[in-house]
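Figure S4 source data
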Amino acid sequence: MNRPFNFSAGPAAMPQEVLTEAAKDMLDWHGSGMSVMEMSHRGKEFIAIYEQAHADLRELLAVPDNFKILFMQGGGLAENAIVPMNLSRGGVIDFVVTGSWSLKSQQEARKYGTVHIAASNAADDHATLPEPAHWQLSSNAGYVHICSNETINGVEYHTLPDLKALGCEAPLVIDFSSHVASRPVDWSRVGLAFGGAQKNLGPAGLTLVVVREDLLGQALPICPSAFNYKTVADHQSMYNTPPTYAIYMAGLVFQWLKRQGGIAAMEARNQAKAALLYDALDSSQLYQNKVALNCRSRMNVPFFLRDESLNEAFLTGARAQGLLQLKGHKSVGGMRASIYNAMPLEGVQALVDYLQHFEKTRS
């Protein structure tokens, strides 16, 4: 089956092998007579699915034993409230604002603590990343929040900041929704990581939280029980009914990732895809990417046509070539290609071929 290449930022493309396996099991999972979406989350069938997914994810991301993996709901947007309800203690929270998602995060957190902007790249239109050495960190922050990959603006921390080296004892919280499982995570620098599954891990509905155990048990009194990390951890993510089918689908993606060679292999593949696309944009007279070279995202590549009157023609031609969802986010305009794990190199090559063909026909 020849499928188009879907460059959506999320919900995003999933591996065809995974979709095929899920389709095969849709009416009858492994002879159980049930679809996964019909199963009790407390039944032995789903418990087996959950335990395998949990184990595979811990192995893939090399999550240390002193971290809990939580399967939750609400997406990254809900975590903007859930994190401060669990970690702020109603005090100061430091934010590094580097684009649309970290901006939303700090706005939401103001309901639960005192937000301090430690650094921002707003002055250069979110095209760079502030150097950690220049961050103005608080002495008493409950945590420091960054979005390690900004989906809309296309900046990414290629190396996570080392807060201890900066003399800061607060835990680092990262929103890694857009690059989770695309590269290794240095857990020695992280207190909590969260992300929606719908970009790199599976369908919408599942939210991943990886939290260091010593950060559990300090939720604000107003925090709902279903969002209290300690409660969720104590009940193995089953205090309330979890997003069972999304967990199953994510579990299939985890197994697919292992078959591809794991996270190291995916990182090498993602580096090659990103280099191919950025090289094509940088060598063009028609297209431009405005993000600084040292912090360009490997997952989300925004770009602009220098002649914006050609935007609709570009998108129409792309769709005709089976290249979908290339329109940029409404807040910034232009174009965006999201090239997550499931996007093969062939898809990026097809986009590059189209970019070059479109430019030649307009020159």
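Figure S5 source data
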Amino acid sequence: MTYCVAIKVNEGLICLSDTRTNAGLDNISRFKKMFTWTVPGERAITLMTAGNLAITQAVMSLLQENIDKPENGLETLYSAPSMFRVAEIVGDAMRIVQDRYGPGLAARGEASDSTIICAGQRAGGPLRLFLVYSAGNFIEATDDSPFFQIGEHKYGKPILDRVITPEVPLADATTAALLSMDSTLRSNLSVGMPLDISVLRKDTYAFETEERIGTDNGRFQALSQRWSDALREAFVTIPQVIG
């Protein structure tokens, strides 16, 4: 399975994904699910994928192929005039791939369902965060719903619901994303490390953070341990409701 989370706050965007795919108890692999594109000073874009791996890989390959060998007049992630248009281009690529492979998968009883988180900012426009569906349509994050999750989202959602608002500082929102992932890692074996993270501060058009977090990352291990200790301490100090 997969867990990807993207958070939009006033100060910036945080995207975080795992790398585990699970096609059965004895068929576990690692695949990158986060992809980034940057034109320094002009735009920075992150895409994260979940669902049928063959579908999402084909979508990413098509988007990159169009950048590498653009046809006359074809808009790409690098030439789109707005993040809304970027989301449309991602949706168009999803629709092309689904139309090509979806019917064959369905005929064999296989699901082609896939989702893509699209986040970023282009110079002259605001930070924007979209969730693209299998049909190529999409929705946008708002102040009322400032984060999106795809994949195994239920374990990591409670902390986001309690903590995340647009006013939360970027550093705190990053911590919340990491703790959301930590909760998912502890509760679902189909989500696994290493993790990929990108952090984009508003109006910089370059990633402040773009790195892979491995099992030997001391900062993540310390964060996980401190969160566990804090939860235990809070639990033992809560007054009994019954009895």
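The CA atoms of residues 8 and 146 lie 5 Å apart. The first helix runs from residue 53 to 68.
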